[in-house]
Amino acid sequence: MTDQSNSPTAALPATKRILVVDDDRVLRESLVRAFAKRGFDSHGASCFDEAVAAVAEHRPELAVIDLRMQGPNGLDLVRHLAEHHSDIKTVVLTGYGSIATALEAVRLGAVNYLPKPADIQEILAAFDPSASPDASEQSLPAPSLARAEWEHINRVLADCDGNISEAARRLGLHRRSLQRKLQKRPPKT
To answer: Does the reported pTM lie above 0.70?
Structure first.
């Protein structure tokens, strides 16, 4: 038995079952192992259909859901779980974070939303934000205009499955202008 008195898992019993849904196999498996080391009965799924089957089989109490995946996305899974398994607490984890998708995830039923990379302690703390001593003082910093533009461009590009010509058309930009913007590093928030 591990000592949990000074960790975010102290508020979460070690017998909790957790499901990690991410299409990145390496990240998914490392999170499953990390949760298992902390006493969780942890399982992984790579897509919406696998996640629905895993929920039926393992009955998790917690779920960490990636926003972007093949087929229905993470928001679709959050909506499905809220409608059919409202007892499962969900945290959305994504590398394509934006204020709009964070608000949508919470509106659909997620208890929190974290940008990648997030470590295991941050994920566990996200399941119970009220357990944080300064939770009432926390607020999301407003992203810079450049950061908001970067997020929007990447969201449109992802919606176009990486097709730069189609993304440029949707954004009202010349293809070369979009390519130049994408070659730059993401701006700080």
So the answer is: no
